[in-house]
Amino acid sequence: MAAHSERMIEGLVADRFVLSVLGKAKRGKSTLLNALLGRTDDLVAPVDKLPASSAVSRFRWAPQEGAAVVYRTGMRQSIGFHQIKEFVTEECNPENSKGVDVVEIEGPFPGLERDLDLIDTPGAASIHEHHDAILHAFIPQSDAVIFLVTGRMPLDQDELDLLSKVKEADISKIFFVINRIDEASEADLLDAERHNKEILARAGVHVDQMHRISAKRAFSGDRAASGVPELMAAIAQLMADHKGHILNTRFVHRVRETVAPIVRQVELDAASRAKSTTELEQDLASLREKKHKIESERELAERQFRLAWRTAFEAFERGLADAKNRVDGEVSKRFDATAALGVSKLAKELPTWLNDRID
Questions:
Q1: How many domains in the chain?
Q2: Which of 49, 70, 160, 279 is least buried, going by the fewest C-beta atoms within 10 A?
Q3: Which secondary structure element, helix H or strand E, spans residue 259, and what is its range?
Q4: How far is CA 252 from the centre of its chain?
Q5: How far is Cα 83 from Cα 86, in angstroms, rounded to an integer?
């Protein structure tokens, strides 16, 4: 978290604006990047028939050309423009097996704002699932996005899902760009714009303007008819008018997002402790109740035992007294009956007779 906070503060102090190019795979993102950078080749943003980008590329203006690979381990490696393809394409770096975090590319790119970081991201919803993971992880680092679609088809569910990620990141400025206008008629473009506006409105996404471009024309050198200069002018105007406000707003949002998990954990811990205290109090009350019940049952058992003992003892005493009386009576009768026999005979018979009575 400390490292993340330091990066946020460094970004605010550096006063750099991060503009990410987003879109589904094969919508022309890399071609648009080359056009925005004023390139007539695809060395810095390789173009391929298959989904090309497998890692994030960051472009900045600088007086001299240079490039570096920043690995997830933190290691940094300087490379030439001709080596960029080896690290950012699915062909040369399948599933980002080289562990690239970002490729940083700088040079005297014409038209690129000096304080702008232009970001190329892997295409969404490609056959490579890790592309989406890389893309979704980077979206929150953006201050604004260029959302690229084509004029030949309306927004689909994959694109709406990607826009929802932009909304979740609280990114308010979206340059909605319709590419490949050279491949669609005016009627088709108007219909696509109308349909897309309806879909965006239902999704709660606000778009000021839909920019029409042909990245292919600009990349081929026909910039005047490509619509790219107008898009670049809109980007420059946004930065001139609202850059400071957007950067401050995004910084506050990122701080909140960083702190939110800690706050939630503290709240959960507090709730857990409160719950545990309540449970302990309930357990203590239950133990007290059980103790009182045991003591009450013990006292009752003792009273019942004493009563039963007293009753049995009294019955025994009564039985003993009755037996004594019977024996006394029998002895008297026996004595009277045998008195005439003599004392010696009575002395012999009396013990045997008494034993029989006792048994």
A1: 2
A2: 49
A3: helix 228-338
A4: 21
A5: 6
Provide the β-strand partners of residue 119: 20, 58
What does DSSP assign to residue 223? -
Which residue has 């048994």 as its token pair? 359
Domain final position from 214, 242, 258: 258
- Looking at the fold, whether 44 and 189 belong to one and the same domain comes out as yes
Reading the block at residue 47, the tokens are: 């173009």
Whole-structure pTM value: 0.68
Helix axes 157-168, 186-203, angle to 10 degrees: 50
The per-residue pLDDT for 9 is 56
User: Is the same domain home to 213 and 329?
Assistant: no
Q: Cα 81 to chain center, whole Å?
A: 38
CA distance 39 to 29: 14
173-199 burial, b if ≥16 CB within 10 A, otherwise e? Answer: bbbbbbbbbeebeeeebeebbeebeeb
Is 139 strand, coil or helix? helix
> Does residue 270 or residue 233 have the better pLDDT?
233
* pLDDT classification of 4: cutoffs 50, 70, 90: very low
Residue 173 tokens read as: 């400025």
Report the C-alpha gap between 155 and 148 in whole angstroms. 10
pLDDT digits (tens, 9 = 90+) for 277-307: 677 677 778 778 877 777 777 676 667 767 7
Give pairs for 85-90: CB < 8 Å, separation 24+: 85/43, 85/46, 87/55, 88/46, 88/52, 88/53, 88/54, 88/55, 88/57, 88/120, 89/46, 89/48, 89/52, 89/53, 89/54, 90/48, 90/50, 90/51, 90/52, 90/53, 90/54, 90/128
Using pLDDT thresholds of 50, 70 and 90, give the confidence band for residue 107: very high
Q: How many helices (H) and strands (E) are present in the chain, helices listed first?
A: 9, 9
What is the domain range of residue 239? 1-258
